[in-house]
Amino acid sequence: MTTDHHPFKGFLTGNGFVFRAREGAIHRFPYAQIRSIGLEHPWLFSDYDPMTIFLTNGSFQEFACVGGSVHMTDLDKSPISASAA
Fold first, then answer.
1. pLDDT tens string 27-74
2. For residues 8-29, average pLDDT
3. Interior CA angle at 13 toward 70 and 16, to 5°?
4. What 3-state class would DSSP assign to 51?
5. Which residue has the higher pLDDT, 57 or 1?
6. Would you tell me which of 13, 22, 27, 28 could form a disulfide with 48, CB atoms 3.0–4.6 Å apart?
7. Residue 35 and residue 3 in contact, taking contact as beta carbons nearer than 8 Å
8. How far apart are CA 33 and CA 12, in angstroms?
């Protein structure tokens, strides 16, 4: 879903999802291991967003995300980037 709550149909590009956590660590997850990602923005003025990564093996991991990006193309192969900072 996009931030406007519309379904997105397209293709992920690159090797995986990369983001920066609140403590400054950079985390990388191969797309092949990710089932879904839940990102919340519960506070108006917050320096991080709670994020849960649900993995294909049935487990999940929770993080405080301060930035990251996803690169993809739409069904017409036009590049699209989604970033959080």
1. 999 989 999 888 887 777 778 889 999 999 999 999 998 888 777 777
2. 85
3. 60
4. strand
5. 57
6. 22
7. no
8. 13
Task: Check residue 2 and give its pLDDT.
Answer: 59
- Residues 26, 20: contact at Cβ < 8 Å? yes
pLDDT of residue 61: 95
Residue 6 one-letter amino acid: H
Closest alpha carbon to 73 in 11, 16, 18, 26: 11
Three-class DSSP category at 45: coil
Residues 6+ apart with CB under 8 A from 52: 37, 38, 60, 61, 62, 63
Residue 56's pLDDT is what? Answer: 96
Cβ-based neighbours of 23, under 8 Å, separated by 6 or more? 64
Structure tokens at 30: 């191969």
